[in-house]
Structure prediction request, 272 residues.
Amino acid sequence: MSGESSAQSASVAFGKARAEGRGTLVGYLPAGFPSVDGAIEACRVMADAGVDVIEIGLPYSDPVMDGPVIQRASEQALAAGFRVADVFRTVEAVAATGVPTLVMTYWNLVERQGAASFARDLASAGGAGLITPDLIPDEADDWLAASDEYGLDRVFLVAPSSTDRRIAETTAACRGFVYATSVMGVTGARAETSDAAPALVARVRAAAGPDSVPVGVGLGVSNGAQAAEVAGFADGVIVGSALVRCLLDVEPATGRAALRDLTADLAAGVRR
Prediction:
């Protein structure tokens, strides 16, 4: 491999958590929100409070899969002048904490730069890989090649509507973990986790066999009790909107305190 990333794969964090008999906590925040430096500081707060893997969102002007909380955060970042280059500075600073750091992005932004160029810059910044919610393995030849060249995780999504064949093909293409979206629709914290989530995780494991990559469940978790519930049947618990909401419409210090408290609650939840 040329230019291979020096970052640990997310699978290392999942393996460590499994060895400790607990779930893995994956936390999401958008780059550039509430500012580039503010996002870096917020991610450091999450790392200190017990998150195992960090997803850095890449703000996009047409976030069709994001709920209102993440949309607002992305809009604020873009209005403040965020540029794609800022995500690499963010990744470099966050990865320095030792927590595996992935970028979550719509594929159009990667394609605009070029998959090989984006992979090179991400690896140089110490990023672990990419989560690509709107890209399927069948259409990912450029990314499969680039991620192999630079030793990066590639995380694709499966949903309750996915066929068993699609689940098997998607999981086989993943490296790091597979992202199971437990509810249909846009992202956002919910009062209850989805009833479909345990069945989807079971289908992923059945389709992929004993060598399956870890399964992380996202969309809906907002507190430690829900995190404990999801960690009871999945390898990882992915939290986004609830964490982002801590930083909306508040003073930075207040937001960071709320973020620290929620992350600690979620971290305690996956350890129950």
